[in-house]
UniProtKB/TrEMBL annotation:
Compartment list: Cytoplasm
Pfam families: Pyrophosphatase
InterPro entries with a match to the protein in the record: Pyrophosphatase (IPR008162), Pyrophosphatase_sf (IPR036649)
Phylogenetic placement of the source organism: Archaea, Methanobacteriati, Methanobacteriota, Stenosarchaea group, Halobacteria
CC terms in the record's Gene Ontology section: cytoplasm
Broad EC category: hydrolase
Biological process terms in GO annotation: phosphate-containing compound metabolic process
Residues annotated as binding Mg(2+) 1: D69, D74, D106
Full protein name: Inorganic pyrophosphatase
Subunit structure: Homohexamer.
Length: 179
């Protein structure tokens, strides 16, 4: 897909919402906040996180999706080792983290790579270790603390079905706005 726009040209997944594509922007263990710029098209450095925290796993967006915050739908892919910005990961949604970002609903799909056998046993929210959920929640509650005027509040976890329903909602919003 050389030269393709990963948000508009790549389908949502091979079998969405059960299997999706995640376009990685930010990497596990890093503070760099990359964003995909569809006008280039390519990944650009948006900023470096102001707080001394790092992404708990690879983070990006779901192609051909548009969410209530008027951005592509966010996805956090649980990985052992980081991939790279612009990497497309086939993933299985397993949970949904509800979040408010400056008054906008900015939920996050939590997914696992379909091609990593270490995650075959994770099918739903209950399968994710509580410590990992706590770390993800802590990251999103604090990563904007030192940015002037930014307020973020995580609002709890929902299961795999809620994540798939939210993906379908994001696909519908994409079709309404861009098709």
């Amino acid at each position: 897909m050389a030269g393709a726009n990963l948000w508009e040209d790549l389908e949502t997944g091979p079998n969405a919402p059960e299997e999706i594509y995640a376009v990685v922007e930010c990497l596990k263990g890093e503070r760099n906040k990359y964003e995909y710029d569809k006008d280039i098209p390519g990944v650009v450095l948006d900023r470096v996180l102001h707080s001394n925290v790092h992404y708990p796993s690879d983070y990006g967006f779901i192609p051909q999706s548009y969410y209530d915050d008027e951005d592509p739908f966010d996805v956090l892919v649980l990985v052992e080792d980081q991939t790279f910005p612009g990497c497309v990961v086939e993933a299985r949604p397993v949970a949904l983290m509800k979040m408010d970002d400056d008054g906008e609903q900015d939920d996050k799909v939590i997914a696992v790579p379909t091609e990593d056998p270490r995650y075959d046993h994770i099918e739903d929210l209950a399968d994710i270790p509580q410590q990992q959920l706590d770390e993800i929640d802590e990251f999103f509650n604090t990563y904007k603390n030192l940015e002037a005027g930014k307020e973020v509040e995580t609002q709890g976890w929902e299961d795999r079905q809620a994540a798939m329903d939210a993906i379908e909602h994001a696909q519908e919003l994409y079709e309404e706005h861009f098709d």
